[in-house]
Design brief:
This protein has helices at 11-27, 32-38, 45-53, 60-70, 97-100, 105-122, 134-144, 148-158, 165-173; strands at 93-96, 129-132. It folds into two domains: 5-77, 434 Repressor (Amino-terminal Domain), CATH 1.10.260.40; 93-168, Orthogonal Bundle (Arc Repressor Mutant, subunit A), CATH 1.10.10. The chain is built from nine helices and two strands.
Length: 174
């Protein structure tokens, strides 16, 4: 997937993400204008509309804030997820946060910020490990512009993911 530098989302992914955002908003009976009113102007109708059309890329931070506003887990907003979860949950991926803290920020910065976002959403600050879903790994792969399996190998080499994570990713890609 060739992308412009700084462009984290393919237009197809942005469109799928937008469709998910629109579905959540309409499930809640909100118009774009209604979102702006309910958020007291924090979420402008024109901005949310551009996210929904896939015209404008949404940052992980803004996506997390929007999920929080709608009261849904971020994973519900990501393409490739089924509402309510699949029948059989895939193997868990567990990040070692203590090891992550020792990876240079220029390499692990995006992952550290993403993990911090998940922790704040869950109110989970035990600080030792953090379990993430396949969808989180897919999102991180988009951020790092790598395939999930390549990113998994990188995280294993950093000592942040256990080698068992390969099975979870193989399960996903198989």
């Amino acid at each position: 997937m060739s992308q412009r530098p700084g462009s984290y989302m393919s237009s197809e992914y942005a469109k799928q993400l937008g469709a998910k955002l629109r579905a959540i908003r309409t499930q809640q009976g909100l118009s774009l204008h209604g979102v702006e009113e309910k958020s007291q102007g924090r979420w402008k109708a024109v901005v949310v509309g551009s996210y929904e059309r896939g015209d404008r890329a949404v940052t992980v931070q803004r996506l997390a804030e929007l999920a929080d506003f709608y009261g849904v887990p971020v994973q519900e907003l990501l393409p490739g997820t089924t509402p309510g979860g699949a029948a059989e949950p895939p193997p868990k991926l567990v990040l070692d946060l203590e090891r992550l803290a020792h990876v240079p920020p220029e390499k692990a910065g995006p992952l550290q910020r993403y993990a911090a976002t998940i922790q704040s959403q869950r109110g989970d600050y035990n600080g030792k490990v953090l379990s993430i879903r396949q969808d989180d790994l897919r999102t991180l792969a988009v951020i790092y512009d790598q395939s999930p399996s390549v990113l998994t190998e990188q995280l294993i080499s950093w000592g942040v993911l256990d080698a068992d994570a390969r099975r979870a990713v193989a399960h996903e890609e198989g």
